[in-house]
Every structure is written in structure tokens, then in C-alpha cells.
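Milestone M4 deliverable, item 7.
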Amino acid sequence: MAPRHLFRTFAIAEAITWTFLIAGMLQKYVFEAGEWGVSIGGFLHGLIFIAYGMTVLLVGVNQRWSAGLMVTAVATAVIPYATIPFEMWATRTGKLQGAWLREPTGDRHDNAWYARLLRWMLAHPIILTVVFVVALATIMTVLLVLGPPGGGN
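Output delivered:
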């Protein structure tokens, strides 16, 4: 899966989970039909939000994005549906062009520890997937133990 395809997948998934969360909030606050929609939508949205952020980091390092561009990409997940126009802009401007950088290219960034780590992880996709899933599960677990945003009501 090319960086562009992975990024697009999570950008779309993030927007879809916004729909679930908004529908759950309408169910709870407008129709007064219980909290289960917010619980499920909020959990899914939180999970995909974190996965999207991790994907931004992975793709951003591979594509040699600046830290500011990566922060901007993550910030789009805070605004409902903004990941879609960001992905379209990134595709149109070539920010998602190319394959995974599995070998050094001679670019000055290739010797950075994080670029070497990314190349190693790309050479071991099962380990990369396990690390991604474990990190996602760990972050979600910590956040669930801390409690929902706003104190739960």
C-alpha cells in the first residue's frame, strides 16, 4: 500500500467517524435517546483519530514533510471532515507522491535516526504493523483510564 493510499484510507475513516460521533450527539442531546451513540461513536472516533495521527507521522516522515505540515495534518482531524480536503490538497500538490522510502536516497534527511528507523520498519512490515497496533491500543487504554473529554457527561 503506497503512502498516498494509506493516508487517504485514514483521512476518509476519520471523516466517517466524525459522522458517527455527530449522529451520537444528536441522538443524545436532540432526541434524548440515550448515550450509547456517543459512547460508540466517541470510541470509534477516538480510535481512528489516534490512528490518523500515527499515520500522519509515518507518512510525513516518509514524504519528508516539515513538522509544521505534520501538525497541520493532525489539526485537520479536530475539525469535522477537514481531513478530506487536506488529503486532496496534499495529493494535488505532490505531498503524497511516491513510494515508501525503503532505501537511502542521498537526501540529507536519510541519516536522521527516525528515517533509518522508518526504513527498518518498512523492511519488517509485520513488526511495523504490530508496533502500530500495540501503540494504538496503549494510547487508547491510557486515555480510557483517564476518562472521556469533559468529564463524561
